[in-house]
Structures are given as C-alpha cells and as structure tokens.
Specification:
240 residues, alpha/beta, four-stranded parallel beta sheet, 10 helices
C-alpha cells in the first residue's frame, strides 16, 4: 500500500465546513456546497456585489459604488457572507481554523487571477498589534501568502500598518465605519519603494461597507502605487 493510501486510511478527506467525508481534500460536501452562495454571473465590477439584469460580461457598478468614491479599480469576492460562507469566514477569523487557509486561498486566487498585471504585488489589510497579539495571527496575511503562492506573485505582508487601534465595526453603520477608519491604516515607510509604480492587489477576509479597503487603498496610493485592486473571501450584501 502506498504511503498516500495509508494516510488517507488514517485521515480520510473531510468537508472543511462540517467534517462529512468527501472524495477530495480541502473541499465541501454536497449539502455544504449547495448552502454556500458563491458569487457569479452579473456583478459590480468594483465591489463584486451581485446584480440583476444585463450580461455577465458587461461592466457595471452597483448603486453604492456609483454613490461612494472607491479608490480601488476592481474588486472580487468568492461568496456572500451568509450561510456556510459566513460560517467558514468566522471560523477562519476567530476559531483558529488556519487549516482553512489552503482551500480559501485557492478560491480567492481563482477570482483574483484576471486582476493581475506583470507588476502586481499582493498586500494584506493589516491588524493593529494589540489585536494581533489577541488573535495570534492576521487572517488577511495568511490569505495573502496563500494567494501569492497560488498565483506565483510577490507578497509584501507588512506593506501597511495599523498605527492606532480602532473599535470593532460590527453593528456600525456606513458613516461610522468610514469615520472610524480615518488615519487608521498607513504605509510602512520601509516598504514604500516596493509599492512605487506597482499594481497592488489588496487582500482581506470580509467586505461590508468598503471602509477598511478604502483606507488601505489610499495608503497604497500614498506610497506611489500605480493601481489598486482588491479581493476578499466574503462580501456582505444587503439582500443576502
């Protein structure tokens, strides 16, 4: 018996969401797949919010992106932030499920691949050091590293800093979120040369209002980035 077969016998493949046996490693079982709302079809080109009407290849913007100036160019997300998608995002962020890095990074890399250019670098949204100490890892940095590996693209894990702590944004409205993020994300001066004239792909786990992503994008432009795009795991959508 080959070693791989022995390992499979001891540690059979399981669904990453519910531990049900699966055929392949790092996948979802049938029921969990059906309860995961992967975003596809007609989307907003900037924030990846699902949209109705039009053709899938048509470039469109949602009402929020028409009303709010987004500093980044294009954005992509894997699934809506509800159901199994929400369960996976919360487990990865708050329950030490770092084993999810591999499948999540693969999903995100697939969505982000069309956004890459010849001079793309991948940058995670930073955590303040106090929150990093409590959580013990920056989930966005893990995702950025995993995506970079999948796409064979450089990653600058400490390109951005969180110079001041901010209160949790859960329950805050859009205005409160944007006000909270004022001056909350800054360029790491030691990395400015690595962002100059580059196309930056920002990485985060969940997008709600876009306040955090906007603050991070503006910091990249202050460093002289030529372009900023973004990819997130989950997109919080009003009608989800």
């Amino acid at each position: 018996m080959r070693m791989q077969s022995i390992i499979r016998a001891i540690y059979p493949s399981q669904c990453v969401a519910c531990d049900t046996p699966t055929v392949d490693d790092f996948g979802l079982c049938g029921p969990c797949w059906s309860q995961t709302d992967f975003i596809g079809g007609m989307i907003c080109d900037q924030c990846n919010a699902p949209m109705s009407g039009g053709d899938a290849d048509e470039i469109m913007q949602c009402d929020d992106c028409l009303r709010i100036a987004r500093p980044w160019s294009k954005g992509r997300a894997v699934f809506r932030y509800h159901g199994v998608g929400r369960k996976l995002a919360l487990a990865f962020k708050h329950s030490d499920r770092t084993d999810l890095t591999r499948p999540i990074s693969q999903w995100m890399a697939q969505r982000a691949r069309p956004l890459l250019t010849q001079n793309s670098v991948i940058v995670p949204v930073p955590l303040h050091w106090v929150r990093l100490m409590r959580r013990r890892y920056n989930q966005s940095a893990l995702l950025a590293t995993g995506i970079a590996r999948e796409l064979d693209c450089p990653v600058i894990a400490d390109a951005l800093l969180r110079p001041k702590p901010t209160r949790p944004l859960k329950g805050a409205n859009r205005t409160q979120r944007f006000e909270t993020l004022i001056d909350a994300i800054a360029l790491n001066p030691r990395r400015q040369a690595q962002l100059l004239d580059q196309s930056v792909l920002l990485v985060d786990d969940v997008m709600t209002s876009g306040a955090t992503m906007a603050a991070a994008a503006e910091a990249c432009f202050q460093a002289g980035a030529a372009r900023v795009d973004m990819v997130v795991l989950a997109r919080s959508v009003k009608d989800a």
